């Protein structure tokens, strides 16, 4: 399954791209995150230099999520795949990967497009897919707001 979101940010790509490697989110906890969805608190590189093969860790309100970077083209593209987590729902997660592309717009603005591919596993695969889709919709919205807030500060 896939979920795509797009946000236009009033900042050039070279101000946005570093946020994928090291960022701290705001302290708000929007309503959907109060029901068990892990809200990112911070993300940073814990192994490597931020290039392909590096490990990025996102600390969430529910624990950690480690991701291996599979694409790193500064200012253009960033891709990663979930490899480990201590999130309670991890046993139901079959696959989660993101690809983020940055496209220049007139006036120094940037369009950020994020595609999350995901699947669930196990006996609860179908209901888990629905829950995952809803969760990723909220996570995309929250991340887009934060990238905009930080890049334009």
Report how far apart the termini are. 34 Å
Q: Report Rg.
A: 15 Å
CATH architecture: 2-Layer Sandwich
Number of individual domains: 1
How would you name the CATH homologous superfamily?
START domain
Task: Characterize the largest beta sheet: strand count, sense, and whether it forms a barrel.
Answer: 8 strands, antiparallel
Question: Number of helical runs?
Answer: 2
CATH class: Alpha Beta
Return residue spans where pLDDT drops below 50 for at least 5 consecutive residues: none
Order of helices and strands: EHEEEEEEEH
Taking all residues together, what is the mean pLDDT?
93
Plain-language structure description:
The chain has 153 residues and is of the alpha+beta class. The chain has a single domain (2-151), classed as START domain (Alpha-D-Glucose-1,6-Bisphosphate, Chain A, domain 4). It is built from two helices and eight strands; from the N terminus they run E-H-E-E-E-E-E-E-E-H. Strands 1-8-7-6-5-4-3-2 form an eight-stranded antiparallel sheet, with helices on one face. The longest helix has 27 residues, at 125-151. It is globular.
């Amino acid at each position: 399954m896939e979920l795509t979101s797009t946000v236009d940010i009033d900042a050039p790509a070279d101000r946005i791209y570093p946020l994928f490697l090291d960022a701290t989110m705001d302290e708000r906890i929007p309503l959907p995150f109060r029901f068990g969805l892990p809200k990112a608190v911070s993300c940073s590189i814990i192994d490597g230099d931020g290039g392909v093969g590096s490990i990025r860790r996102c600390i969430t309100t529910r624990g950690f999520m480690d991701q291996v970077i599979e694409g790193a083209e500064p200012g253009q593209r960033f891709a990663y795949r979930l490899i480990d987590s201590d999130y309670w729902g991890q046993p139901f997660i079959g696959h989660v990967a993101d690809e983020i592309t940055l496209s220049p717009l007139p006036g120094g603005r940037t369009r950020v497009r994020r595609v999350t591919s995901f699947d669930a596993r196990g006996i609860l695969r179908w209901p888990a897919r629905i829950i995952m889709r809803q969760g990723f919709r909220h996570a995309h919205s929250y991340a887009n707001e934060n990238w905009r807030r930080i890049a334009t500060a």
